[in-house]
Amino acid sequence: MKSSRRTFLITSIGVASTLALSRQAAFADAPKVTEADPTAQALGYKEDAAKVDKAKWAKYAAGQDCGNCSFYQGKAGDAWAPCPMFGGKQVSSKGWCSAYNKKA
Ligand code: SF4
């Protein structure tokens, strides 16, 4: 491997991991989604899945919550974590919205 290519690769890896770290830091500081948020209203997001309007959101089934949704970006046990449906704002692990997709 030519040294300029190696240098490029090493630099790229460094930049990528720095970006990953700063994204992590941004996540921790990301604001929490409120139920008044227009996206939350459009998606029927509730901070407590038990309060989902079941008449309006027939697809909701007991046991579904952000913590077991494939979009939830937290680890098991994280009370809040970012969700891409809300531009990376944090949602409650006990919450739910109509974009719910069961984690495989
Ligand atoms: Fe929660 Fe999933 Fe909806 Fe995001 S997409 S708010 S993690 S149910």
From TrEMBL:
Keywords from the named record? 4Fe-4S, Electron transport, Iron, Iron-sulfur, Metal-binding, Signal, Transport
Task: Fetch the PROSITE patterns from UniProt.
Answer: HIPIP (PS51373), TAT (PS51318)
* InterPro entries named among the record's database cross-references: High_potential_FeS_prot, HIPIP_sf, TAT_signal
**Which Gene Ontology BP annotations are present?**
aerobic electron transport chain
Instruction: Report which superkingdom the organism of origin falls in.
Output: Bacteria
Q: Could you say which residues form the signal peptide?
A: 1-28
Classification via Pfam families: HIPIP
Keyword 4Fe-4S found: yes
**Subunit composition and interactions:** Homodimer.
What is the annotated role of this protein in its UniProt record? Specific class of high-redox-potential 4Fe-4S ferredoxins. Functions in anaerobic electron transport in most purple and in some other photosynthetic bacteria and in at least one genus (Paracoccus) of halophilic, denitrifying bacteria.
Family (UniProt):
Belongs to the high-potential iron-sulfur protein (HiPIP) family.
Name this polypeptide is given: High-potential iron-sulfur protein
